[in-house]
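Proteins fold reproducibly. Look at a sample protein:
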Amino acid sequence: MGSARILAVDDERDTCEALAEMLTAWGHKVETAFDAHDALRKAGEFRPDVVLSDLAMPETDGLGLLRALRDELPDCPVVFLTGHGTIDGAVEAIREGAYDFIVKPLDTARLKVCIDRALEKKETMREVQGLRRRLKQLGSSDFIGQSVAMRKVFELIEKVAPSKASVAITGESGTGKEVVARAIHNLSQRRDKPFIAINCASIPATLIESEIFGHEKGAFTGADQRRPGVFELAHGGTLFLDELGEIPIELQAKLLRVLEESKLRRLGGKVELEVDVRVLCATNRDLRKEIEAKRFREDLFFRLNVFQVQLPPLRERREDVPILVQYFVEKFRGDSAKRVTGMHPDAMEILKNHEWPGNIRELRNAVERAVILCDGELIMREHLPPDMAGKSPERHTFRLPYGLSLDAVEREYILGSLQRNGNNKARTAEILGVSEKTLYNKLNRYAAEARGQPGGKGTEGNTLSGHAGPLLGSTSEIR
């Protein structure tokens, strides 16, 4: 990571100044504070990217500082330096939202890795906040996008919405054609009247005439009562005919007559009814080819295709993927009471490079699945559908500084893998190619080393198996 602002806090001046000297040598801009009160004041002025603080301090300890910083700088990661006697306090700090803790005497390589990871998370959360601001600016509409292609679509919608013209909305399946239709209705003078949508492909051919035009009692077997069709239901408002190309050719002449005369007769009926309906339609078929094949009437095509809105596929508007992802995260987080706030850069990179044959519908499903699986704050690549998560391994890297021993490299790789797998030890063991017993043995050894006690037991009998996440350098995603 590049240069960052770091606030170093320690009541021992010599220790604090030595820490500041080392951080400065690493290229960071450093401020020092010698107690929690001084740290709070300087945090408000300096606005640090990371706070590095001793846990045990007189008067107000590190935990008190953490709680105060949560109000002042809620997105600032706090890393604690702790002695062997205050491990339990460090675990409590993790539970209250600290990013990590490091046991004294300091392992400088581990400290550097920890700061880099904290800065990475800070940057991710900053991006999430930016996406939330952009979503707020766009309002509560489901119509999300800021790419050049989508801005052109917005302009067309704004121009055609106030008119009475029929609109043909074209685009691949899943691009949001019904969302466009609703936007046109909501911006028109018919906004207070009904919006009725019907998918012509989902209705059996034997029922589609009744569905569109309605029927009288006794019109056919099973018609035990009068039923209005969608034209009547949409009277005064807007009717959206999705998958228009699926309407049988024999019904197209009747539909054309309703459009031209604004009158219809229910199936089995004798009385003509006047209807005032604006018709919008959508299809992912090429209707000109359907006309050539004699499967679609040319006169009906020109009657409905007065104005056309072409929706781009998601692969042609990749710059909209982050804001769409954030929109769906916010939506599904609320639906499931999860604490997910956004998506890790590795996972977002995969989504931005996916081809999206199912377009926005596929993206929506992928994010909904990820929110269900995610137990932390950020969606990781492991939470994405398998066919996505397995791609682009070259983008999924694990960075370590030079100078680490092989044992330290193994430790960091195991802990990093555990973190990326949401603290799921069974999955981590499978990915690492070891047994769960081997993984547990290594984690217990790391915990014993951190506590400085053989056998892997901490104070008050706490073992690693109960607190593996907090004790082994997990992020605030693990509470």
The chain is about 45% helix and 15% strand. Confidence is low (pLDDT under 50) at residues 392-396, 453-479.
